From TrEMBL:
Region of interest (Disordered), ranges: 22-46, 399-439
Domain LRRCT: 160-210, 346-397
GO cellular component: plasma membrane
Organism domain of life: Eukaryota
Protein name: LRRCT domain-containing protein
Signal peptide from the UniProt entry: 1-18
InterPro entries: Cys-rich_flank_reg_C (IPR000483), Leu-rich_rpt (IPR001611), Leu-rich_rpt_typical-subtyp (IPR003591), LRR_dom_sf (IPR032675), LRR_TM_domain-containing (IPR050541)
Coiled-coil stretches noted in the UniProt entry, renumbered to this chain: none
Keyword annotations of the record: Leucine-rich repeat, Repeat, Signal
């Protein structure tokens, strides 16, 4: 009997092994499935990590620009301070869309296609100080949108087709509060026709609900020109706001001129490695806050006199690796506070035209400059331009200009009248004697000669 029971147990164990093996395989497949699940979530994380995450000055940045995004990803880190979402495909900002980012200080949503912002879209962002919504498709918004942002001090709304009618009343009133001086600067009406082009901050608020103003243009009236939603600078360059507002227009194929519509609040512009050959007057006139301008590695060979007009605060100017031979008189006169001027690798010609540049540098000793080496003519090639200028009058010493020497002795035919005549023959402000052929004057007379 015991033998029978033992045999029965043995058979039961053997029969159970395939099922256990099958169960083990299922577990293995389940495990593999979970691995694949982790793989998928890993891909999601990697997709999220396609956004560049970095730390600067103790603050965390998440750079998700140019990612074709239409919404916020759920696995993004929530303890970031700056979120960069420019040049994506956001169209509507939904309620509580950013509420998890409670530490956020700046939110960059420029150059999307945002046409609507729900009232609670920025709920939870009590620390936000900077909001960038320029270059979008917003037509209207209310003050309610900005109420969750008690610390907001910097708001950009320009280059949106604002419809200046009653729905915009509360937003315009808020922008016009004197303490909100950095909110909504440069934003303009796109319609109605009577208000087109007027700045929101300078509108007469009562006119927003004026029925006469808001009557649409009839068929007999010309239609307003289309609103240019994507200026040239927007399509060709990238705009960054942190750590400082700057514009990256470097290495743009086919860029042979300074783009139009430069942002007025930009601090740095990088136009290096392009094909710009000519700087025309007042191309940077609106960028009055500009401090760094990089024009290196272009084909620049001519700069008009007023090219840098308005750049009162410019500190650094890089013109290296171009085709400049000299500066026209007056080119640098607007750069009152320039501190660094890079001029390396330009074919400077050492002749009279180069004197203006040296003259300007001499009278601005605080400007550190590099790269002023003569390229032509051959006899001065490799010379420092400053050394060339010092030798410019080397062949005209004073003794040659006087046409002779005066020993100061009597008995040389000189007299008191002659000495008095010599004094009269000095050029005003020069202190140099005149050549002999100008000395044939009547005795005891004086004449002022101005030499060119």
């Amino acid at each position: 009997m015991r033998l029978f029971v033992t045999l029965l147990l043995f058979l039961l164990v053997r029969s159970a092994e395939p099922r256990r093996g099958h169960r083990s395989g299922a577990v293995e497949r389940g495990s593999a499935g979970r691995v694949r699940g982790r793989g998928r979530s890993g891909v999601t994380r990697r997709q999220a990590h396609q956004c560049k995450e970095y730390t600067e000055a103790g603050e965390r940045y998440l750079d998700c620009q140019d990612k074709q995004l239409t919404a916020v990803m759920p696995d993004w880190p929530t303890d970031i301070h700056h979120l960069l979402l420019a040049r994506n495909r956001f169209q509507v900002l939904r309620s509580n869309m950013f509420s998890q980012f409670t530490h956020l200080k700046s939110l960059d949503l420029q150059q999307n296609d945002i046409s609507r912002v729900e009232d609670d879209a920025f709920s939870g962002l009590s620390q936000l100080t900077t909001l960038l919504l320029q270059h979008n498709s917003l037509q209207t918004a209310s003050e309610e949108v900005l109420l969750p942002l008690p610390r907001l001090t910097y708001l950009r709304l320009y280059d949106n087709p604002w419809s200046c009618q009653c729905q915009l009343d509360s937003l315009v009133r808020m922008l016009q509060v004197p303490s909100n001086r950095n909110l909504g600067n440069y934003a303009k009406c796109a319609e109605p026709l009577a208000l087109m082009g007027q700045k929101l901050r300078k509108l007469s608020v009562d006119s927003l609900c004026n029925n006469d103003i808001n009557v649409e243009a009839g068929p007999e009236r010309p239609k307003p020109p289309p609103i240019k939603l994507k200026p040239e600078v927007t399509s060709m360059c990238r705009t960054y706001i942190f750590p400082r507002p700057w514009l990256d227009c470097s290495n743009r194929a086919g860029l042979n001129h300074v783009p139009a519509d430069l942002p007025p609040d930009i601090v740095k512009i990088d136009l290096s490695n392009n094909s710009i050959i000519h700087l025309r007057p007042k191309q940077f006139l609106l960028s009055k806050d500009l401090k760094l301008l990089n024009l290196s590695s272009n084909s620049l060979h001519h700069i008009d006199t007023a090219a840098f007009a308005g750049l009162l605060h410019l500190r650094e100017l890089d013109l290296s690796n171009n085709s400049l031979k000299y500066f026209q008189y007056g080119v640098l006169e607007d750069l009152y506070f320039l501190r660094k001027l890079s001029l390396d690798n330009n074919p400077w010609i050492c002749d009279y035209n180069i004197h203006y540049l040296i003259y300007w540098l001499k009278h601005h000793p605080g400007v550190a400059h590099t790269g002023l080496i003569c390229s032509e003519p051959r006899e001065f090639r490799g010379w420092r331009v400053e050394e060339y200028v010092k030798t410019y009058n080397g062949e005209c010493p004073k003794d040659k200009l006087t046409g002779g020497t005066d020993t100061g002795q009597g008995g040389q035919g000189g007299s008191d009248n002659d000495a008095q005549e010599e004094v009269g023959e000095m050029t005003v402000g020069q202190g140099e004697p005149l050549p002999n052929h100008l000395k044939e004057k009547k005795p005891n007379t004086f004449e002022i000669i101005r030499l060119s």
